[in-house]
Structures are given as structure tokens and as C-alpha cells.
Q: What sequence folds into this?
């Protein structure tokens, strides 16, 4: 049975953040809020937890996985950054953007795209996500909480609790989080390739001119 923490979305309670991180360190899968949706998360090196997230989402081997990082210094440990990529990520984070870049050796192969050797990177602009990352002091594997066969993420933590209370260790309730997909930018070449416009589009377009 999943634990259920009501955490303030703007001023997260440190005690509850520490307990959430303890659950992650013990191999747990958690539901937490980001700046674009609720999402599932586990530690990057936790094979069993990752396999459970695959089953919950019914994800195939070619799914593009994402790491959430605390800041740009974390990002640079896990992906290869050109000068252009560094400039763009610095200008847009933290925020609702997913950057797809070539992974470094720090990224387990099971998290990389099997042929492209890429991984998605996010630096979310949400106090709870940032508090979890700061307390854990390492990135998290994450994927949007979209039920199998659906197109939209679950937005209501009570509904999430009903759906997943026997499949995850923790649901963090930060109130309703409306689903608005991130903008996805591939940065494997010199010029960015925008493969999905989503939340944050206006800022990106203003930046790129």
C-alpha cells in the first residue's frame, strides 16, 4: 500500500522530503509533481524499480527515457554538451523543456535509446522536484504518469492514489497539476531540432528568434 504525503507545492516540508528520499533510497517508486505533470520516478541505478515503472507505463525498449537533474552541473555529468547546447539549456532551465542529447558513460545503457545512445534531460521548475533532487543529491529517472492507452497524464493525486496505491511506494499530493507536455528539443547536432512544441514554447521562440 502506497504512502500518501501532502506536501506544500511552494514550500515543501523538509521532513516529508527526507522521508520521500528515504523511500527512493530503499528501492521505491514514487509519484511526484513537476512543472508540466505528475510523473513516476526512481533512482537511476535501481534496475528493479525501473522495471516496475516500465510495467506500470507498459513501455517498450525503444521508449525515450528522461533524467531529471538539479541544475546544469548535474546535466553535464550525464550528456555530451556542445557550446550551443550548453548555451540553450542554461537559458531555458529550470523550466518545462526536455533536451535529448548523447549520453555519457555515467548513464546506464538501459536508460539510453538502444540505437541512438541518447537520453532525455530535464531540470524542472517545481519546488518539490527541486527539493527531492537537492536532498538525494543525484538525478532521478522519470517518466510522465500517462496510463497505458491514454494520451494525457493523471492530474488529480486522489485519482492517482486509487490507480496506483498497490504499484508504487509513495504518492506525493501537491494538489491538481494540469498536464501540459514539455517542449522537446534534440541537441545531438550543432543546431537544435524541435520535435514537440509544448509548455514553454513562447520563451523558446523568443530565444531562437
A:
Amino acid at each position: 500500500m502506497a504512502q500518501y504525503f501532502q506536501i506544500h507545492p511552494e514550500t515543501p516540508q523538509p521532513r516529508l522530503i527526507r522521508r520521500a528520499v528515504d523511500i527512493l533510497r530503499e528501492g521505491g517508486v514514487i509519484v511526484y509533481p513537476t512543472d508540466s505533470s505528475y510523473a513516476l520516478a526512481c533512482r537511476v541505478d535501481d534496475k528493479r524499480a525501473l522495471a516496475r515503472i516500465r510495467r506500470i507505463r507498459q513501455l517498450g525498449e525503444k521508449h525515450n527515457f528522461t533524467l531529471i537533474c538539479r541544475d546544469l552541473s548535474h546535466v553535464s555529468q550525464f550528456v555530451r554538451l556542445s557550446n550551443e547546447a550548453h548555451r540553450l539549456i542554461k537559458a531555458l532551465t529550470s523550466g518545462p523543456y526536455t533536451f535529448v542529447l548523447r549520453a555519457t558513460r555515467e548513464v546506464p545503457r538501459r536508460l539510453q535509446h538502444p540505437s541512438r545512445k541518447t537520453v532525455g534531460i530535464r531540470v524542472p521548475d517545481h519546488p518539490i522536484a527541486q527539493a527531492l533532487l537537492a536532498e538525494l543529491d543525484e538525478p532521478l529517472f522519470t517518466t510522465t504518469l500517462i496510463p497505458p492507452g491514454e494520451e494525457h497524464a493523471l492530474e488529480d493525486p486522489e485519482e492517482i492514489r486509487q490507480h496506483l496505491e498497490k504499484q508504487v511506494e509513495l504518492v506525493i499530493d501537491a494538489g491538481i497539476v494540469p498536464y501540459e507536455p514539455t517542449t522537446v528539443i534534440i541537441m545531438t547536432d550543432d543546431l537544435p531540432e524541435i520535435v514537440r512544441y509544448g509548455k514553454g514554447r513562447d520563451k523558446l521562440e523568443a530565444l531562437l528568434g
Q: What stands out?
A: The chain has one domain: 3-208. Residues 3-208 form a domain with the DHBP synthase fold (CATH 3.90.870.10). The longest strand covers residues 38-43.
